[in-house]
Structure formats: structure tokens, C-alpha cells
Amino acid sequence: MPEFLENVGKYWHETKRRYNWQFITASEELNFIQTIAESIAPTSDPTSITNAIKHGYNRLIYDTIVFAIHNPDDPVARSAANRACAEIWCIARNIAIARGVDQADIEDIAQEVTLRLITNPEKVEKPHKLAAWIGYQVLDFRKRFYSGKLRSQQVALETAETAASTIDVEALVERHLMLTLFKPLLKEVLSNAQYVIICKHLIDGSPPHEVAQQLNVDPHTIHSQKYRALKIIRNHPKLRELLESIHEQQ
């Protein structure tokens, strides 16, 4: 087993360098290598070992994001998820470059793929093949970007879930400053981070990076928590009633 563990470690470092993986820190490497070595039967086949490493790495990133989504107030989970999102963004960006995406669209597509994952992780049917899923999403967004469908929409993709509702929650919160009605109830139903994001970003108009600095989190967290907060707002009976009342007055 020690010899096999050493072999897995060798292929781990080779694969990590090849794909420029950044998610697993130096202090976490040994534990990851041991996990991979225990997940497969000892073998000298490079392909089997490398595939096990790729699958394990993909699964770890996916599980980290899902765990943080279900534990939004856990600072350790949130920090790990931020690193995982940064890795997703980089993978998507590299695939977009390899697929010949226009330079002006590369970062937008990487961002959209990341947002699609953190807002709908259940869409990934095979988490151990997350990189392949990301590749499919890049192609999908490239097709939609180039067809002009995205640019012709009034609502950006990052608010697609909200746009599917009969009420554009984000637009309403941005346009109407009924703080005396909303703030107390918002504070009751949202986490502290979500409350700050809705008030500072959507209502006050502060840029995401400024809110991220205030909360001492990665900008990816602002996007993911915003969508979770909007979903809570839309599904909350009282808040929805207030929003529908405002909507009817337009």
C-alpha cells in the first residue's frame, strides 16, 4: 500500500500541474491522495489512477459547493466554497479559450457557468464528471451568446430563475424603497449576509465587490447568496404579497 500511495501521489502532482488545479491546498494534499488510493484497487495502470484522481477532484469540488449551500452560515464551508467557485470559473475560462470563444465573451461565459452551477447544482447528474459538465455548459453559452439570444433578453442570465417568476423580484426591490415595510421582515427571514447583500447591493446600489469587501467574502459569494435571498423573498407569503401589491401599482 505505501508504494501504491506513493504512485498515486506522483500522478496527482502530474495531473495537478497539467490542469493547473488550485483548489486543494498543500496541507490537504496528503488526505486527498490517501482518499484516492483507498477508492480504487491497487494498480500500476496510469490511466486508471489518473481517472480516479480526476473523478475524485471533481466530486470534491461539487460536494464542497453543495455543502456550503446547505450550510450558509458556516464560515469554513463558505471559504472552501469560494475556492471551489474560483476553480470552476478557471476551468470554464480555460475551456472557453480552448473552444475559440471570442476574447470579449470568455470571462462572461465563465461567470455564467459558475452561476449556473451554484444556483442549480442538482443539474449535475454525475458530479465525478463535473469538468465534462462544465465543458457542455461553455458550449451551450457560446451558442446562445453567438445566436444573440442572451443579448436580446432584458433579464440577464444571472437572474433567470427570478425572471421565470411572474414578478421580477430583483427589479422590484431595486426600484421601490419601501424600507419601513421590507427591512424588518427581511431581517427575520434572511441570514445576516443575505440581508446586507439585498440592502447594500440591490437597494443601495453598491457594487458586488464593495459588498464582498464589507462582508470579507469572495465576490462569488455575493452572487450565490443574492440568488438564495431572492428565492426566499419570492417564496415568502408576506413578502410576496407586498411585492405583488407594488407590482399592481406600476
UniProtKB/TrEMBL annotation:
What's the domain of life for this entry? Bacteria
Among InterPro entries, the record links this protein to: RNA_pol_sigma-70_dom, RNA_pol_sigma_r2, RNA_pol_sigma_r3/r4-like
Q: Per UniProt, what is one GO molecular function of this protein?
A: DNA-binding transcription factor activity
BP GO terms, sorted: DNA-templated transcription initiation
Name this polypeptide is given: RNA polymerase, sigma-24 subunit, ECF subfamily
Q: Which organism is it from?
A: Herpetosiphon aurantiacus (strain ATCC 23779 / DSM 785 / 114-95)
Q: What is the lineage of its organism?
A: Bacteria, Bacillati, Chloroflexota, Chloroflexia, Herpetosiphonales
